[in-house]
Design a protein that fits this description.
The structure is a homodimer of 120-residue chains.
Chain A (H helix, E strand, L loop, with lengths): L2 H6 L1 H11 L3 E2 H12 L3 H13 L3 E6 L2 E6 L1 H15 L7 H22 L5
Antiparallel strand pairs in A: 1-3, 2-3
The first copy, chain A, binds a DNA duplex (30 and 30 nucleotides) through helix 3 and helix 4.
Chain lengths: 120, 120
DNA sequence: ATCCTAAATTAGTTATGGCTAATATTAGAC
DNA sequence: GTCTAATATTAGCCATAACTAATTTAGGAT
């Protein structure tokens, strides 16, 4: 199943949001998601399995419990796809691109300062 | 329909890839996509409509033809969602984040230089 | 060994997304 | 006006993703 199909489901996005805050046991995920979406333990378990097999989550056993975390792999895949289009939003990526612009200006000024005592 | 559901479909991703190269008429899209996926004009038209209503494409009429282009809106939405997880892959966003890091370093050095003649 | 809790798995049902086929719209040429 | 080309729209069919209910597996306690 393709990365975007995985993220297409609101329950799976919610699970990832939760895991983004840190490792969670399957039970904790069931409780949180159940509260929000009212679905069964089975359903959540199936989602967790899919997140794992599609590279969005990792699991480690802890006794009888299973602890899940975010796996960046799948998200990076998504990010890589979106990359192709980044140039379309004005070579300006809000806060991020502002930082870059400022950084470049700062660098330029610094480098010019090295060669020439008179910056613009 | 949610942005990720839109990108979940391989045909729609293919269309966006095509539009990323530049504006295309509906007919051109039908031909390109038809060749790759073997689906009808109707199917492609339905996909184009969805891309439009979900903020991934814009359309402008040109006589009887309709010219489609990528609309960054939907992609930005996706990008914003992924943002929450970026810190997970090493606070390193390939070229982009490298730029930021360099920029911050440059700024820091420059500012320190103003107050104190001895940079680290 | 028995029991309980945590979680996964399986089988079966249902809702929906994506398709085709047919039809409708619109623009331009004649 | 009629005809054709380009595209959109509608209705209906089908495949499948997501769910529930029931069962199974496994760990830890008594």
């Amino acid at each position: 199943m393709h990365a975007f199909d995985v993220l297409g489901d609101p329950v799976r996005r919610h699970i990832l949001d939760l895991l983004a805050e840190g490792e969670r046991s399957a039970g904790e995920v069931v409780e949180a998601v159940g509260a929000e979406f009212g679905i069964s333990q089975s359903a959540v378990s199936q989602h967790l399995a899919m997140l794992r097999t599609s590279g969005f989550a990792t699991m480690r056993p802890d006794g009888a419990r299973r602890l899940y975390s975010v796996d960046p792999t799948g998200l990076q895949e998504v990010d890589a796809w979106v990359d192709r289009f980044r140039h379309l939003w004005g070579a300006r990526l809000s806060a991020l691109e502002t930082e870059i612009a400022r950084g470049k200006r700062a660098q330029r000024q610094q480098e010019e300062g090295k060669n020439n005592e008179r910056p613009d």
